[in-house]
Amino acid sequence: MPYVVEPEMLRQLAKEKGYLIMAHNYQIPELQRIADFVGDSLQLARQAMETNAERILFLGVDFMAETVKALNPEKKVVVPVLCATCPMANSLTEEEIAKAKEKYDAPFVVYVNSTARTKFLADYLCTSANAVDVVRNVPSDTVLFGPDKNLASYVAEKTGKRVIPIPGELGYCHVHNFVTTAQVRKLLEKYPDAEVMVHPEVPEQVRKIAHFVGSTAQMEKYPMASSAKTFIVVTEVGMAEKLRALYPDRTFLTIDSMVCYNMKKNNLRNTYRALLSDGPEVVLDERLGEKIRKLVEDMLKLTA
Ligand code: 13P
Ligand code: SF4
């Protein structure tokens, strides 16, 4: 194992060993650059359904890698480390779901940022890109929605439906939930012509001062539709790296506290080691995988 790993060495090894490299938009720029495909959760799920590659190296967090594995049960899915997880996904327990189901007679729409066991108990699946479409198309005026309370609030606002967040107050992403309007306004004072883009995982009061709300892939398209030269990117800082590479003539400002340390657990060295040793491999119970496959297929039918 070489001590210094250059991005080109990763590309070469992936090619030799027949790996397709998929990465989420929050990965460090060096990893985004060596990936064959970089996207948001919805794009990554679609890509995972379409690939012919026998081996996939996934760069993101565990629930995303599990979705890729569920859609490719016969293939080898490898990650740099197994401990890159999403704390929000782990915040919803089976007991809380059971309690909510007992109290309300309503379908349970699960956000893709959830564990495989949580998904097993869900009726519908969504990502941040299609949560509004999915809930709009669910044949019920009331839905249980979890684990992200902020996305639940956005979906309720957009659909006019009763969206009951589970687990409730404690369901949030620690990277997005603690951003404040004061942090955004401070940047706006300095850059009054800037436009504010936010991920729907931010709290309602921050969402209210945004020019645009969307998933990371939707944020990627937004500058094309805007004449602004400067954007305040209110999501994990990795997204701004991607935007800067795509639009070199525009300025993208970040909220520096918004770092997902789990996404940043993947680096050039552990990615190289994963390719070299064909592991660690993502393992998923077949019954859970089957359920996730079904949820993804149904989700795509409900997506506009
Ligand atoms: P996207 O699907 O919008 O990329 O979001 C994933 C995520 O983890 C947001 O924190
Ligand atoms: Fe989870 Fe938040 Fe990290 Fe996204 S940014 S993976 S929701 S902890």
UniProtKB/TrEMBL annotation:
Q: Which cofactor does it need?
A: [4Fe-4S] cluster
Q: Which domain of life is it from?
A: Bacteria
**Chain ranges passing through the membrane:** none
Q: What class of enzyme is it?
A: transferase
Look up the EC number in the record and give it. Answer: 2.5.1.72
Query: Which Gene Ontology cellular-component terms appear in the entry?
Result: cytosol
Q: Which terms in the Gene Ontology molecular function aspect does this entry carry?
A: 4 iron, 4 sulfur cluster binding; metal ion binding; quinolinate synthetase A activity
What pathway, per the record? Answer: Cofactor biosynthesis; NAD(+) biosynthesis; quinolinate from iminoaspartate: step 1/1
Which UniProt keywords are listed? 4Fe-4S, Iron, Iron-sulfur, Metal-binding, Pyridine nucleotide biosynthesis, Transferase
Which terms does the UniProt entry file under GO BP?
A: 'de novo' NAD+ biosynthetic process from L-aspartate
Does the record carry Hydrolase as a key word?
no
Q: InterPro entries, from UniProt?
A: NadA (IPR003473), NadA_sf (IPR036094)
Family matches, as NCBIfam families: nadA, PRK09375.1-2
Protein's UniProt name: Quinolinate synthase
Q: What is the lineage of its organism?
A: Bacteria, Thermotogati, Thermotogota, Thermotogae, Thermotogales
